[in-house]
Amino acid sequence: MNAKMGILLTAVCLMTTAIFAQEKLQIAGPGQILANPDYYQGKVVALHGVIDKVSLEHRTFTIIDLKGASAASTNERSVIVTNEGGSQPALPKTGQEAVVIGQIGS
Predict the structure, then answer these.
(1) For residues 74, 78, 80 and 81, what is the CA-based torsion angle, rounded to 10 degrees?
(2) pTM listed for this prediction
């Protein structure tokens, strides 16, 4: 299966909810999550990387590792982020560094 489609992070819109106050967040890059997806499955993480592609229609974007962002290759392994909440936050722009907090799913 394509690594880009193998992992999905569901973005959480309100970062100040009770779940975050009670849970210590792990900070991970896309490479870490893709290297060990079973470990992160169902956990809330702070995903740190660079925005690679944005789909306004599907309210999704992909994040690649910071070190991969400077490479010329367009075949970087990435994590797809989707907003499944009721609100519609502004989507980031391609090339921006970002930290997204959400739950890892498949």
Answers:
(1) -110
(2) 0.70
Handedness of CA 95, 97, 68, 30 (dihedral sign): negative
Which 3 state secondary structure label does DSSP give 11? strand
CB atoms within 10 A of CB 57: 5
Question: Which domains, from first to last, does the chain contain?
Answer: 3-105 (2.40.50.140)
**Rounded Cα gap, residues 42 and 39, in angstroms:** 9
Q: Exposed, middle or buried by CB within 10 Å (0-12, 13-18, 19+), for 72?
A: exposed
pLDDT, tens only, 28-46? 999 999 899 899 888 888 9
